Amino acid sequence: MSERTFSFEFFPPKTAEGAEKLRATRAQLAQLKPKFFSVTFGAGGSTRDRTLETVREIQASGSEAAPHLSCIGSTEDNIREILNEYKSQGIRHLVALRGDLPSGTMDAGEFNYANELVSFIRKETGDWFEIEVAAYPEIHPQARSWTDDLANFKRKVDAGADSAITQYFFNADAYFRFVDEARSLGVDIPIVPGIMPIGNYVQLARFSDACGAEIPRWLRKKLETYGDDLPSIRAFGLDVITDQCERLLAGGAPGLHFYTMNQAGPSTTLWQRLGL
Ligand SMILES: Cc1cc2nc3c(=O)[nH]c(=O)nc-3n(C[C@H](O)[C@H](O)[C@H](O)COP(=O)(O)OP(=O)(O)OC[C@H]3O[C@@H](n4cnc5c(N)ncnc54)[C@H](O)[C@@H]3O)c2cc1C
Predict the structure, then answer these.
(1) Who lines ligand 1 at CB under 6 A?
(2) Which residue has better confidence, 197 or 46?
(3) 45 alpha-carbon distance from chain centroid
(4) Which numbered atom of ligand 1 lies nearest the CA of 99?
(5) Distance in angstroms between the alpha carbons of the first and the last residue of the chain
(6) CA-only gyration radius of the chain, Å
(7) What is the DSSP string of the chain?
(8) pTM across the whole model
(9) Interval between CA 30 and ligand 1 midpoint (Å)
(10) How far is the CA of 99 from the centre of ligand 1 (A)?
(11) With 70 as the cut, is the pLDDT of residue 104 above it?
């Protein structure tokens, strides 16, 4: 079995205070020696400079950085410029996405889907970048069907993706089924589960509805019993997510990608509990 891959995701901070906090988070998480830190990118390029700045700091600290790059709302020239900038900074790893345009924005730009971005990156930069793409074990919310979404996932892989990171989920069976079906279509790249620690329940429920990640009824009901008792929600959430990660790794998951929300605590605790 090839070596497992562990990674942490950040969003680019908006304020000097946020940037300072992220430095501390990164320093703490770097001690765990993840393969890389990824940094999100607002669709339409809204965080372009902040993503670049965050990524530069990560590289300068000696860790590997993988900026996300979303293409919706962009032109080929925009994307080419960003790729050249990353290349000149010595960045060799990207997470290539379509992104979601804010509602009311009409101009989709020159890219419609992530597979077009992956093809463009390969055409422009050959094998310079290791490319990750997104996968949706519970199916992307806009997909016409399960079959269609899997075929679209395969299209990104055929375009040249090296590995995939999934949307978070709370149902390990969905992940295993997705991987099995992708394999049956001939997809052989690693599909790394995205892990979301459970913190603020109201926020999590809102976000999950929007991105199509199902919170199972038993879990919702159990979380509701804690009301706004955050420490109890977190403690219970850590138990649930530790179990899930154990099951995923035991079932052959090729690593874990933690959505940190720029906090070191929950991911570090999970890491320790999993004995990584
Ligand atoms: C790991 C991860 C990281 C993310 N990071 C960011 C980020 O930094 N910034 C951000 O804005 N968003 C981010 N997102 C969210 C992501 O941008 C959204 O989920 C978006 O709606 C889809 O992006 P995608 O790359 O999966 O799109 P695609 O793979 O293009 O798929 C989008 C939809 O179109 C369908 N589709 C795909 N290709 C075709 C085709 N050729 N013809 C017809 N239909 C097609 C798919 O089935 C799917 O329903 C992230 C998601 C994940 C899982």
Answers:
(1) 40-43, 68, 70, 95, 97-100, 113-115, 134, 140, 142-143, 148-149, 152, 155-156, 165, 167, 194
(2) 197
(3) 17
(4) 17
(5) 16
(6) 18
(7) -PPPEEEEEE---SSHHHHHHHHHHHHHHHTT--SEEEE---GGGTTHHHHHHHHHHHHHTTS-EEEEEE-TT--HHHHHHHHHHHHHTT--EEEEE---PPTT----TT--SHHHHHHHHHHHHTTSSEEEEEE-TT--TT-S-HHHHHHHHHHHHHTT--EEEEEE-S-HHHHHHHHHHHHHTT--S-EEEEE-----HHHHHHHHHHHT----HHHHHHHHTTTT-HHHHHHHHHHHHHHHHHHHHHTT--EEEEE-TT-SHHHHHHHHHHT-
(8) 0.97
(9) 28
(10) 6
(11) no
Average pLDDT for residues 179-196, to the nearest whole number?
98
Give the distance (Å) from ligand 1 centre to CA of residue 275.
Answer: 32
Enter the tokens of residue 228.
Answer: 């706004």
Rounded mean pLDDT of the chain?
Answer: 95
Per-residue model confidence (pLDDT) at position 101: 78
152's tokens: 């679209």
Going by alpha carbons, the residue nearest to atom 12 of ligand 1 is 99
Cα 206 to the center of its chain, rounded Å: 18
The predicted structure's pLDDT at residue 106: 62
Point out which residues pair with 8 in neighbouring strands: 37, 258
Q: Is the pLDDT of residue 32 over 90?
A: yes
pLDDT tens, 190-237?
999 999 999 888 889 999 999 999 999 999 999 999 998 999 999 999
Residue 236, both tokens? 């219970």
Quote the CA–CA distance of 212 and 203 in Å, as a whole number: 14
What is the length of the chain?
276
Q: What is the mean pLDDT of residues 89-106?
A: 87
Res 97 pLDDT > 70: yes
Q: How far apart, in whole angstroms, are the C-alpha atoms of residue 265 and residue 54? A: 20
Q: Provide the pLDDT confidence category of residue 1 given band limits of 50, 70 and 90.
A: low
